Amino acid sequence: MNKTPGASAPTPPAPNEQAVATPIQVGLLGIGTVGSGTFKVLQRNQAEIRRRAGREIRIAMVADLDTQRAQAIVGDRAEVVADARAVIANPAIDIVVELIGGYGIARTLMLEAIAAGKHVVTANKALLAVHGGEIFAAARARGVIVAFEAAVAGGIPIIKALREGLTANRIEWVAGIINGTTNFILSEMRAKGLDFAAALAAAQAHGYAEADPTFDIEGIDAAHKATIMSAIAFGIPMQFDKAYVEGISALQAADIRYAEQLGYRIKLLGITRRRDDLARAAGEGGGIELRVHPTLVPGQRLIANVEGAMNAVVVHGDAVGTTLYYGKGAGSEPTASAVIADLVDIARLASAEAHHRVPHLAFQPGALASTPVLPVADVVTSFYLRLVVVDEAGVLARITGILAEADISIDAVLQRESAEGENQTDLIILTHETVEGRMTRALAQMQALPTVLAPIVRIRKEELS
In terms of Cα–Cα distance, which of 161, 80, 195, 214 is closest to 325? Predict the structure, then answer.
């Protein structure tokens, strides 16, 4: 290339320019398990993180009611206060990391931080699933970022994968083991033949389950996370109140054993799926399935072999096909990994104009779809059924006749001696796909038969192929 006579080449940046860039100042609200992990990992890997971010990321303030414990963690490297609002009010703080949790004060503080012009990082899946629309609207109006990689699946970067890595794809479905407590319990039940109560006690003894494990075992925690993934995958608003949620507390060891004999394993899955068949039938925009429940998965699927407290998410896109994301879904440093990744993203993007940033829910705010979340009666899936029946001729014929009349096709039948008593048998039926509402009506007819001796067990089955 020709040069203009007398012109000099541009001066290259000094080698130490990054080192003298103004540090990002972070305020941490809550320094419990995740907060302490964030502080420690940021300190340990500061040089590497600075090379990636282009500037130092420094936790300058920590707010925690237990100031003595907080001070013991941070020493003299950060100011410790008891009042979270002191962090928000500090004009030197660029980013507020909310690690308090829950729907109450965390929501208030997050909105106050946004109003003060602070970027926010959060691991609070419950708050986003319920109030995400309000929070993201406030952030857009103020021109700040709300980052939440740590809200789903701990150290697995599933939010970034859905929002950025798979942006060329039309996502068809997402299915995930997104609660480590329940996966540990189900793994113990399968491997050791334990009943639910014994497996839950083991989870509590290992520190995987809280003293009150309701949010985990009843599927609520997983539903919060599935709601967030659904919104990002399909470009719809957060709709936690529309999710179908069923936990594992009623699951019996017998069903885990029978599933194994049939080549399946039972996992608590969060599932969200695009249903275009409704659009074709009605000439409308279709619908989205959003559900959490115990699910039979073929034993040869990789996700069926995820054991212990680990998490895994499977995403199917039209271009990329099926992808699997696996790792630790909770814990101090795995979750801290996601928090710090968000801090680095903000360090890189904070100076960009708001409309040039990645949208919170992947799609531009004005382009979010009004596609409805379907009621569970409209879900399409296949089923595992277990009936305790009188051991006599004609019983199977009556039951299969009811299914045939409902246009429900049978895939396999297994009959085993029942542990419930003499002259009884366990009848296990696998069906092909059908509409949930149709199965519900057929089950009511079967339950009314005098030869059916106990409540019928129904567990949904997904091939994930």
Answer: 161
